[in-house]
UniProtKB/TrEMBL annotation:
One of its GO terms (cellular component) is endocytic vesicle. PANTHER family: HEAT REPEAT-CONTAINING PROTEIN 5B (PTHR21663:SF0), HYPOTHETICAL HEAT DOMAIN-CONTAINING (PTHR21663). Residues 1041-1210 form the LAA1-like C-terminal TPR repeats domain. GO terms for biological process: endocytosis; intracellular protein localization; retrograde transport, endosome to Golgi. This is LAA1-like C-terminal TPR repeats domain-containing protein.
Length: 1242
């Protein structure tokens, strides 16, 4: 609406609203309300004037509800559906919405709005009161401080109690729901009491008032964790009450029949439990009588007295709660348990802790009400109403699942629920009586299985009738192909028979899955395990056949309806709706059966494997065999002409669609395990853990159920994907479809499910390997494309260059050299693509291009530090390294390029240094060793390019980062100039992650240099590695010093290999590193011994320990050099070591007795003695090369060491002798003799 017209319209309608004629002012106000709704924020300039006009019209006597004037005009006004005040309420509602939060800024407008809303709520017309409540909801949203809770809450209670109109009750309940969501404690603090009873009474009197349930659920969500016992008492009161008083006097106390119940609740052993954080009990007004209702407020400013002071209503006959109300009470109990369980507070399930904290602090815990929970389940499961019975069984199952591990503090090594064995059996028995419905019987069977498998009782003989019910139901399934009776329930319909049969099989499947962790269940399952394997296999086959037939029937019905009219479509939709209901139930049971089958297959159970390997679908097989034969005959007749014509049309380009097909493979028989494989893929393709409903609880339930389905199917695939069960020909035909489904699951689910997907891929690689991924097939070569920069892109589906097209099988021509090193086909490429996609998801921070790719394809970054993510990346890198290891040489380089990219990307990500660093280094070494093993068969230029690229990526990261130092500039990092600025000086402001990142990068560089010695490495990279090792050795951080020496030892070990290239590289690196180590040892020793003022009794500092570590690691490194060197040069190496270490000994005439000097002396002497023991001949040669002063120092040190050892041995012998003498004296002084004769005893 244009601004100019809006002003005119408002002026006209404002003028007309003051007209005394009822029709005129009524419809003018109606039009003004529509204008406000249409204009929106454009109406802001007219809010103040409109509110003033509304107040004026409201106070005018001529604008009554029926209007003034003649009888005719009055009758016209009375024929109107709604009053004038109703239109005023709509106008005020719209104006408050336009003002929004600005309502609090203007005092005049605010007071006027609040006054008008109060007046509207005090009207007699229910439609006007509804508008007043709607305006109040807007005030609560935009200006909650303007709402007087002490007035509003009792007003809403009065409306809910006395109103006869459903619209007013709905409005009051919606407003109450809004208040409860904001502050439930304030609502019940200002209520008139008995609010819980009022809510449950509303469910009885107005079953369509579903907003009551939302209020109670919100109330439970906010308060159940602090006061669960109060909620158990409220729901127990509803279930045990025989009648609800619907017509009590509003100005008197509570109904008489409520008093005994309140006394009963207060007499429990868990009374006076807990208040809120403010010291106020949210339920304080709930358990009190309604005396507060009989004391209206005396304040003249509150409109409450005009609302609640009404004539007393005569009491109506008391009625018992309806069954729907009792069902809702049971649902509330289940919600309380869920809220407490999801909180993660273990004290709610520990009886000993709960009792102690209740006694000391008055806290409230759910475990204190276990007895009441069991009583309510027995009551609900024994009622004749089937819906209540089902809720009781659900509550019993939930109680067993939550409290099955709660210990009984009064009985050691016992579970709390063990004492309720009789009550649980009494609750389960009515489910199998003659009056039970099939739904109740099915649920009863499942709850029996939950109880047996919960571990509450682990002696099979003590289960009694519960286990007999399960075994009896199983015997019925074995006897009858179509189940006709279970327990006392007879004459089952086909649908009911199938439902109960699936429930029985599902129950026993749960026991089989639980038997993996509970050994006592093996004795329960073993007598019937053979029959169970057959029944489970038949159930899976039946379910698969039903799925195929239903989809085929639906397709035929829809096709027929297109030509016959709408009747066929209606029948098809009706039948499909019934099938979907049955299918959903069957699928939930199928997942349990799949879990049981998987566990038995993992255990190599012969009965289960035999049942799965049987041939199924003979009719279908015979038909398909005939069709395949006809298709092969037709293809033989047309293959030559089709291929020739395609070559002519395309000008020598071979198209995929018309290319000659490979010879038809002989397909084996269809076995039941193939059907199970297909079921798993179908469920994976149609299941997602993302919630699609509006309710958060429904979303959580859907996510949990679907996540369980995904994990169950992936676990089943992990078990059955074995060459002994599924042959490679079958897997080759369906492999691409399986990978497409797995890729979809991996993109849509979290790290836990992604880890299971990777586990399935690992199983396929380990089981099939080269037989599936590295087989030259015609279709594989036609679809083959080289791995580009973007592995996520779609593969090319045609080949345009005839030179790159593989010849048909049996042609005899050689394969083109351009394809010898490419990947063999789309199978391997699909695995590499999925693994790289998972890497991109989890390591987004290490690759800028990966971030752009994720934004383009809509991917999501996972949580980096979760254990599931760590495990996932560990499996991904392990599988990639495994593929490189098992791949033939012509495919190895391409796989190694992708694998090294992933490994180095993870290694450069700071988030995974601690957890994944060692694992990545192991896989990196495996890849480099695989390349080195086949280096003679690989392209040397490509191999050199790959390894130098990997080294460059790691060294670039190392050059731009040093622990404790700022990052270098771009020029310095690109030129790999480490320099003095990047020297690691201290551990100040250096995090453990930075230290680990530095160490992992240095170790990765060392592995590449030492594992593949036959490849030419750039001289700049070797020089950079030397500088990094030197900087690490000079560091004052102990971990970095150790890694630096480890890298040098790795270089030294290349000297002992038979590879001449390795020896050459080792000597090139040691040319500078060994003299540097010798110099470092001498310098560090001089620094340590030069310090004065520290006595031998002082403990060494952290810097002292690092200095000693540098000296010790350096000496050990030199010793490893002597061990790795040949016999011809070893005497020279030992002489160099002795010339370096002997000066570290303490001189004879030295007066320096500091602790550092003594530590250096002891370290040097111990290493010299070990060197002499290990290499005696070389040690003598080195001793002869020493000067007289150094030889004398060594001899003196050895003599002193021997003398000290002798003195220590003598002191030890003296201590032992003194101890023996002391023991002997004690033995002689204390003697106890038993009296053998009592002859003179009196």
């Amino acid at each position: 609406m244009a601004g100019g017209h809006l002003r005119s319209v408002v002026e006209y309608l404002t003028s007309l609203s003051r007209d005394p004629h009822p029709i005129v002012h009524k419809w003018s106000l109606h039009s003004l309300a529509l204008t406000i709704s249409s204009a929106g924020l454009m109406f802001s300039p007219y809010v103040s004037s409109t509110l003033t006009n509304v107040a004026t019209v409201y106070l005018a006597e001529s604008h009554e509800a029926a209007g003034a004037g003649s009888i005719a005009t009055a009758n016209i006004a009375m024929q109107s559906e709604l009053s004038v005040y109703h239109e005023m309420g709509r106008i005020i509602y719209g104006l408050i919405g336009i003002l929004g939060p600005e309502l609090q800024s203007s005092v005049k407008v605010r007071e006027l709005c609040v006054s008008l809303v109060e007046e509207l709520r005090n009207e007699d017309d229910e439609f006007v009161i509804v508008q007043g409540i709607r305006c109040t909801q807007h005030l609560i949203m935009f200006a909650p401080l303007l709402v007087d809770m002490s007035t509003l809450v009792p007003f809403l209670q009065a409306r809910l109690r006395r109103s006869t109109g459903l619209s007013l009750k709905k409005a009051a309940m919606t407003c109450m729901y809004q208040l409860v969501q904001r502050d439930v404690k304030s609502v019940f603090r200002h209520s008139m009491g008995g609010l819980d009873d009022q809510f449950f009474k509303l469910l009885d009197t107005d079953p369509t008032l579903q907003d009551v349930k939302d209020v109670v659920r919100s109330w439970i969500t906010q308060t159940a964790l602090e006061q669960p016992s109060q909620w158990i008492d409220i729901c127990r009161k509803v279930l045990s009450r025989t009648a609800i008083d619907e017509g009590q006097d509003t100005n008197t106390g509570a109904a008489p029949n409520d008093a005994p119940e309140e006394q009963q609740v207060g007499g429990e052993d868990d009374d006076n439990i807990g208040g809120d954080d403010d010291g106020e009990d949210v339920f304080g007004d709930v358990s009190k009588s309604a005396k507060k209702q009989a004391q209206p407020s005396q304040s003249s400013s509150e409109p409450l007295p005009t609302v609640i002071t009404e004539r007393s209503v005569k009491a109506a006959p008391a009625l018992p709660p309806r069954w729907r109300t009792r069902i809702f009470a049971l649902e509330c109990i289940r919600q309380v348990i869920d809220v407490v369980a999801n909180s993660g507070i273990a004290d709610h399930f520990d009886l000993a802790v709960a009792r102690r904290k209740k006694k000391n602090f008055g806290a409230d815990f759910l475990v204190l009400k276990v007895a009441d929970l069991i009583k309510m389940t027995v009551y609900a499961a024994s009622t004749p109403i089937q819906e209540i019975r089902m809720e009781g069984l659900l509550l019993l199952r939930q109680t067993i699942e939550r409290f099955n591990s709660t210990a009984d503090p009064e009985v050691p090594d016992s579970v709390l629920l063990e004492q309720y064995q009789a009550q649980i059996g009494a609750a389960l028995t009515p489910a199998f009586t003659a009056e039970s419905t099939p739904e109740v019987v099915s649920l009863g069977v499942k709850v029996c299985a939950v109880y047996v498998g919960s571990g509450i009782i682990q002696e099979v003989d003590r289960f009694g009738r519960v286990l007999k019910l399960l075994i009896g139901a199983l015997e019925k399934c074995k006897e009858d192909k179509r189940l006709t009776a279970v327990g006392d329930v007879t004459d089952l319909t086909p649908h009911a028979s199938q439902m109960i049969k699936w429930a029985v099989l599902n129950a026993w499947a749960e026991l089989q899955v639980a038997s993996v962790h509970r050994q006592y269940l093996v004795a329960v399952l073993q007598p019937n395990l053979g029959e169970l394997c057959k029944l489970w296999a038949n159930a899976l086959e039946e379910y698969a056949r039903a799925r195929v037939e239903s989809e085929a029937a639906l397709a035929g019905s829809v096709a027929a309806s297109g030509s016959t009219g709408s009747t066929g479509l209606f029948d098809a939709n009706y039948n499909n709706s019934g099938r979907d209901t049955e299918k959903n139930f069957d699928q939930s049971s199928t997942l349990k059966i799949l879990g049981a089958v998987s566990s038995l297959v993992d255990d190599k159970n012969e009965a289960m494997i035999q049942a799965l390997m049987r041939i199924t679908g003979s009719e279908v097989d015979s038909f398909s065999t005939k069709q395949d034969k006809e298709a092969r005959d037709n293809s033989k007749r047309d293959s030559s002409s089709t291929a020739f014509s395609s070559m002519e049309e395309d000008g020598g380009v071979l198209s995929i669609d018309t290319a000659a097909e490979p010879p038809a493979q002989k397909r084996g028989p269809l076995r039941l395990i193939h059907v199970v494989f297909g079921l798993c893929l179908e469920i994976l393709a149609k299941t997602s853990s993302t919630g699609s409903t509006n309710s958060q609880s429904a979303v959580n339930l859907s996510v949990a159920v679907n996540d369980s389905a995904l994990q169950g199917c992936l676990g089943a695939l992990h078990s059955i994907l074995n060459p002994s069960y599924i042959d490679k020909d079958f897997l080759s035909r369906v492999f691409l479809e399986m990978m497409t489904i797995l890729e979809r699951v991996a993109w849509m689910e979290g790290s836990r499910v992604q880890g299971l997907v990777v586990g399935v891929i690992s199983t396929v690689i380990q089981g099939y390997g080269k037989d599936v991924f590295f087989v030259d097939e015609v279709e594989e070569y036609r679809l083959d494309t080289a791995i580009g920069e973007d592995l996520v892109g779609s593969p090319v589906v045609s080949v345009t260059d005839p030179r790159e097209t593989a010849p048909p099988v049996g042609d005899g021509r050689a394969v083109s050299p351009t394809t010898t090193s490419a990947l063999p086909g789309s199978r391997l490429r699909s695995i590499i693509q999925l693994l790289v996609e998972l890497y991109i998801q989890k390591c987004v921070g290490s690759n800028v291009k990966a971030i752009k790719t994720l934004k383009t394809i809509g991917g999501r970054a996972g949580q980096k530090t979760t254990p599931e993510t760590i495990e996932l990346l560990s499996r991904v890198t392990e599988i990639l390294a495994m593929l490189v290891k098992v791949a033939p040489p012509r495919y190895q380089l391409h796989l190694a390029a992708a694998t090294l990219n992933v490994l180095i990307g993870v290694l450069r990500d700071p988030a995974f240094q601690t957890e994944l660093g060692p694992h990545i280094l192991v896989n990196l070494k495996s890849v480099i060793e695989s390349l080195n093993k086949n280096s003679t068969e690989l392209d040397p230029k490509f191999l050199e390019l790959i390894l130098n690229g990997a080294l460059g990526a790691i060294l670039k990261k190392q050059a731009s980062f040093a622990p404790g130092k700022p990052a270098l500039s771009a020029d310095e990092s690109m030129s790999f100039n480490f320099g003095a600025e990047a020297e690691v000086d201290s551990e100040v402001d250096v995090s453990p992650v930075e230290i680990t990142e530095w160490c992992n990068g240095l170790l990765g560089t060392m592995l590449i240099l030492t594992s593949c010695t036959g490849v030419q490495i750039r001289k700049a990279f070797l020089d950079q590695f030397e500088r990094l090792v030197m900087s690490s050795i000079e560091s004052n951080i102990g971990k970095i010093v150790t890694v630096g020496y480890q890298c040098l030892k790795g270089v030294i070990l290349m000297e002992s290999t038979t590879d001449e290239a390795g020896k050459t590289r080792a000597r090139l690196l040691m040319r500078d590193l060994i003299p540097f180590v010798v110099t470092t040892i001498v310098v560090k020793a001089a620094q340590e011994t030069a310090s004065t003022g520290v006595t031998a009794n002082d403990s060494p500092t952290k810097d002292d320990k690092v200095g000693m570590q540098v000296i010790e690691e350096g000496i050990l490194t030199l010793k490893s050099l002597g061990l790795a060197s040949g016999e011809t040069v070893r005497p020279v190496i030992i002489s160099i070591i002795m010339s370096t270490v002997v000066p570290l000994l303490h001189p004879v005439d030295s007066v320096n007795t500091s602790s550092k000097a003594m530590m250096v002396h002891t370290l040097a002497l111990n290493n010299l003695l070990a060197l002499g023991t290990q290499f005696p001949m070389e040690f003598r040669h080195g001793l002869s090369t020493l000067s007289v002063e150094r030889r004398t120092r060594l001899e003196t040190a050895i003599r002193q060491s021997v003398l000290q050892q002798q003195q220590q041995q003598q002191k030890q012998q003296e201590r032992e002798q003194r101890e023996q003498e002391r023991v002997a004296r004690e033995r002689d002084r204390v003697k106890i003799e038993l009296k053998s004769s009592f002859a003179g005893f009196t």
